[in-house]
Amino acid sequence: MSQPQPQPPRMRNTQESTPDLVYNIDQLEYLVSSGKRVPMSRMVIVDEDEFMGLLDDIRANIPMEIRDAQRLLKERERIVGEAQEEALRIVNDAQRRAQVLVGEHTIMAEAKQHAEELLRQAEKARQEEKGRMQVYFLQQIAAIRAAAITTMGTMEATVERSLDALDDAQAAIEQDDGPQH
């Protein structure tokens, strides 16, 4: 069984100012994979100074990487917190708007109901007033008719008396003078 050939480590990222932890781990892996094998075992002989140097670099880089990870976690938590606050604000705003709309709907329904009640009352009052006016007008018509009948009766009696008086006056004139032709 042939052993796979060790791959050379990646090139160090020289554009970053912080040491590259992954580069150091790749170097360590390359050191172990390219080391001399101890016959009849799974052991490998590596250069101790090179191995220890890489471990020291890894140890030095871990706190930096952890700080970066912690910073990223805090940033993530901040973003999630802001998103949750924004979501809560949106939900609260939507609830307030819904309450306003429900309140406006309730007010509109109550106003409509009140307006309909006022219209019913006004129609009832109009009908009652119309009935009272009809009764009043009928009473006035009856009173005028009665007054007209009474007045006509009085006028007839006055006319009859006047005619009787005229007849009496004519008769009296005719008796006193006799006919004069």
Which of globular, elongated, flat, extended, rod-shaped describes the shape?
rod-shaped
- The SSE string, one letter per element, is HEEH
Unreliable stretches covering 5 or more consecutive residues? 13-18
- Measure the end-to-end span: 185 Å
For the sheet with most strands, the description reads:
2 strands, antiparallel
If strands are numbered along the chain, what order do they take across the biggest sheet? 1-2
If helices are DSSP runs of H or I spanning 4 or more residues, what is the number of helices? 2
Q: Quote the average pLDDT.
A: 83
Task: Please bin the fraction of helical residues.
Answer: over 70%
> Radius of gyration in whole Å, from Cα?
62 Å
Q: Given the helix and strand composition, which structural class is it?
A: mainly alpha
Number of strands: 2
Beta-strand content estimate: under 5%
Reconstruct the topology from this structure:
Elements: H1 21-33, E1 36-37, E2 44-45, H2 48-177
Antiparallel strand pairs: 1-2
Helix pairs in contact: 1-2
Account of the 3D structure:
The chain is mostly helical. It contains 2 helices and 2 strands. It has a two-stranded antiparallel ribbon with strand order 1-2. Strand 1 and strand 2 form a beta hairpin. The N and C termini lie far apart (185 Å).
